[in-house]
């Protein structure tokens, strides 16, 4: 029997690799190890530039050679680290040995004991995760998310004035426009993107229990909190001055909760689009060669929106788990975060896949304007709100003596289909001013949209 044990276990690494593979540059095991090499190299260069532990600065060629361990990190580097870890059973220690091996060729053999000096593994790991999550968000996730919101914004502008019969509680309600309804999502999503763009990525560098104990013993003359701050900030991160052995991961929880909310809003968009399609408000554009059903040839299924729903739910399940697990560590340190953080890429991968499906789904639908118009024309009773509100305004202005206009309109329209003629006859008999009557005679379901068109574009 053939074996399939080398096939991708996760669909993100198999079926959906093309859509999410860019995250692997940062959030894969290889991306994490490259980041660890980066942190170790920058610490070695920083401490020698600072003259810590009695050292002297390296020359430019030596610094460049060390940094090439990061920029030239390739499959041979990955394989070498894998061999080291297979023996040592410790990922960060393997990175230390990896760097030590390359020092002699750079004329830095005497610097071997400076690699990883005064560091605990978490000093390297927390800074590595902060950099790869930051870069994955900024270089991959955020550009894709912005592109989706921009696409929605374009649709909101295009459909700003296209009337839509609203449905509250699934029932016909005061009309809006399709553009205004899409603009609501643009506004909601943009707020969350703004939060994500302002996100702090924290890092700590303070030793085995956050006290600088080894640092002070090895070099009592240095101002170690200041050294730590300058090193962390030099990596483009925000310094966390007070931690246990681990960086507390609160920033990660903040980020994942915000992405989770962004995902939830997208889930709402996906279900609304699915519903609009099922109501005939949007047509799906046939794609040559595609099959909607294995037995019903006519079908075009809204698979992009359904796929997005499922992936958003998977992403949020993982993001919620990450956020709740990472903020708790037993006393000064446990290893629950080690396994948990290795799934950051999976959580963001499902979100990215959903974003990809939504962009593709929105690109294969067109608004069914005739269906929207027919639906509005079939529901003249939605003007009951307008009529009873105008009557109230007339009563308030002393131009009418009608008692309880709400109940009056309720009796006429609740649970009934009414026609244009029915409403015109009703308005004709109302005790209101002529100008108000003319406004109501001119009103149509498709024009009863208030400021929806303006709201769709002024966001």
TrEMBL record:
Pfam families, per database record = ASL_C, Lyase_1
What EC number(s) are associated with this protein in UniProt?
A: 4.3.2.2
One biological process term from GO is: IMP biosynthetic process
Query: Does the entry feature the keyword Lyase, yes or no?
Result: yes
Single GO MF annotation: N6-(1,2-dicarboxyethyl)AMP AMP-lyase (fumarate-forming) activity
Look up the domain of life of the source. Answer: Bacteria
Entry keyword set: Lyase, Purine biosynthesis
Q: Where is the Adenylosuccinate lyase PurB C-terminal domain?
A: 329-449
Looking at the record, the residues that make up the Fumarate lyase N-terminal domain are 60-308
What InterPro entries does its record include? Answer: Fumarase/histidase_N, Fumarate_lyase_CS, Fumarate_lyase_fam, Fumarate_lyase_N, L-Aspartase-like, PurB_bact, PurB_C
Membrane-spanning residues: none
Record function comment: Catalyzes two reactions in de novo purine nucleotide biosynthesis. Catalyzes the breakdown of 5-aminoimidazole- (N-succinylocarboxamide) ribotide (SAICAR or 2-[5-amino-1-(5-phospho-beta-D-ribosyl)imidazole-4-carboxamido]succinate) to 5-aminoimidazole-4-carboxamide ribotide (AICAR or 5-amino-1-(5-phospho-beta-D-ribosyl)imidazole-4-carboxamide) and fumarate, and of adenylosuccinate (ADS or N(6)-(1,2-dicarboxyethyl)-AMP) to adenosine monophosphate (AMP) and fumarate.
Question: PANTHER family from the xrefs?
Answer: ADENYLOSUCCINATE LYASE
Question: What is the official name of this protein in its record?
Answer: Adenylosuccinate lyase
This protein's species is Pseudoclavibacter caeni
What are the leading ranks of the lineage?
Bacteria, Bacillati, Actinomycetota, Actinomycetes, Micrococcales
